[in-house]
Amino acid sequence: MKDLTGKSAFITGGASGLGLAMAEAFGREGMNVMIADIQQDALDRAVAALRSKQVRAEGVLVDVTSRDSVRNGALATLGAFGKVHLVCNNAGISIAALFGQVPERDWNWVMDVNLKGVVNGMEVFAPLIESHGEGGHFVNSASVAALYCPGGGEPYGATKFAVLAMSEGWSAQLSPKNIGVSVLCPGVVVTNIFDSHRNRQAAYGGAVAMSDSDRQLANNMMPLAVEPSVVAARVLEAIRDDELHILTHVEFSEVAERRAARISEAFGRLDHSPALDA
Amino acid sequence: MKDLRGKTAFIAGGADGAGFAIARAFGGEGMNVMVADIDEPALHRAVDDLRGKNINARGVHTDVARRGSMRKAALETISAFGKVHVVCNSANVPPRNALLGCLSEGDWDRIVDINIHAVVHAAEVFVPLIESHGEGGHIVNIGSAASFIVQPGGEADCGTHFAVVALTEGWNEQLGPRNIGVSIVCPVVGIAPESLGRRVVDGIKNDELYIFTQSGEFREMAEGRFEPIREAFRKSQLSPTLRDLPPRILPFA
After folding, report:
1. Is the pLDDT of residue A96 over 90?
2. For residue A151, which residues of chain B lie inside 8 Å, CB to CB?
3. DSSP letter string over A186-216?
């Protein structure tokens, strides 16, 4: 999508962090912005902040785990702006815990928000973007955790591996329809993702304060973090150039290469496998 | 795990397809085999077939999507064979081509439940049981070509299979030091069941993380998939937005 001015964007998890930074970046380009978020007070603050910067912004309360709620967000967007062109399936939560220490409800929570939330956004919005014929773009938030999975990162990593793979497929599906798909794979960004439990829905056990281990993780990670405005600026470049993979933390190419080499090595083992006839 | 003889395997989705091929191979190594499946008639046929080959086999009706059902199956395995060493997750929703708009919400839920959550249930239920006897063990997750390559229309299949690769990689790192191997097997359509079974047995004995069964075109596509990612890293290195960021170190080495 080359020209963004006057077009409309819908951003889940848009009231804070990376979502809000993308909203600001899109607003600066003259886009209308619908912020969707699960946290009402953060939503109100974000909309007010955007409007104070002369962005045409609206907010809608959305729980991405519910397809009906995402549909409702889509209707609100069409009601406010008439059309929707750019959708950021950005809402995401983080769980990091050692084997056996992830409660079953948290497995459901991370799968439903990070994986099914993206599916809900794609299924609901793809027909709406297609309908107006002006083209559009999806930005699905994955992570560098989509490129390798360290021990303890399984719940989060599994959802991000899935979002990366699905986005590659959707990109091929939608490109002939003039709809681009990007999958955003950043490293650590200055956001409150390590405080995800603040917004845990009742169905998954309800909201709880940040745990000591999450606080320690955040403290360890944040010195390495990049400002969300930098990532958002890179996302703009990628939307304009229709780039599929957006990799903002180039230092991770090393671990991605290490994994690719390990996979090649495993294939190479077949050449000498006594188990195979051929 | 080097020596499989006399040890016990639990195979989720073991009544047919890849799971059954692996059950036969395990039995051929002298293992006791507990076949778990949701399809009762297929379960009986599979157990009869294995016993006909003098394999010490039992069957347990299991709905892998339900943690309670997995727990019950695990307890039956212990009461039948005393211990369990190898757990094979081969229950998968059969892939089907489905463009956006073609799968219902219920379809997506079922695919995520059976392809991902069931693998988590099995690992979390069985690992403490494997650890309790101190003889070591192995978790074998059965994927497919969709674990490493992506086809448009196959998003549900690829997404969930990629997710299981992530689980496998992380658990491999966590459980390896606890004497439990973890592998992902990626059989591609056309593999002979006997070859698959032998390859899985070898992969367990050699403690391989990625157990591939075929090379050729699949290997080219799986390796080729990294090329656009490399290109995207190169593009970001040249991006005017990122170029001036200070260099950072890796948080996980």
Report:
1. no
2. 170-174
3. -S-BSSSGGGGGGG--GGGT---PPPHHHHH
Q: How far is B45 from chain A (nearest CA, A)?
A: 27
Domain of residue B49, CATH code: 3.40.50.720
| CB-CB neighbors (< 8 A) of A159 in chain B | 163
Contacts of A220 in chain B (CB under 8 A): 251
Give residue A213's pLDDT: 86
Reported as a single tens digit per residue, the pLDDT across A230-275 is 999 999 999 999 999 999 998 899 999 999 999 999 999 998 777 7
Q: Which helix (H) or strand (E) holds B89?
A: strand B86-89
Q: Which domain holds residue B211?
A: 8-224
Alpha helices in B2-86 (DSSP H): 17-28, 40-52, 67-81
Residue B64 counted as domain residue: yes
Is B68 domain-assigned?
yes
B165 CB neighbours in chain A (<8 A) are 149, 161
Contacts with B, A 35-54, CB within 8 Å: none
Q: Which of A220, A219, A238 is nearest to A230 (CA)?
A: A238
In chain B, how many domains are there? 1
CB contact under 8 A, B155 and A166: yes
Does residue B195 sit within a domain? Answer: yes
pTM here is: 0.96
> What count of other Cβ atoms lies within 10 Å of the Cβ of residue A216?
11
Is any Cβ of chain B less than 8 angstroms from the Cβ of A96?
Answer: no
In-domain check, residue B3: no
Q: pLDDT per residue over B208-250, tens digit each?
A: 999 999 999 999 999 999 999 999 999 998 888 887 676 665 5
**ipTM for the complex shown:** 0.96
Mean pLDDT of B36-46: 98
CB contact under 8 A, B152 and A263: no
pLDDT confidence of residue A278: 46
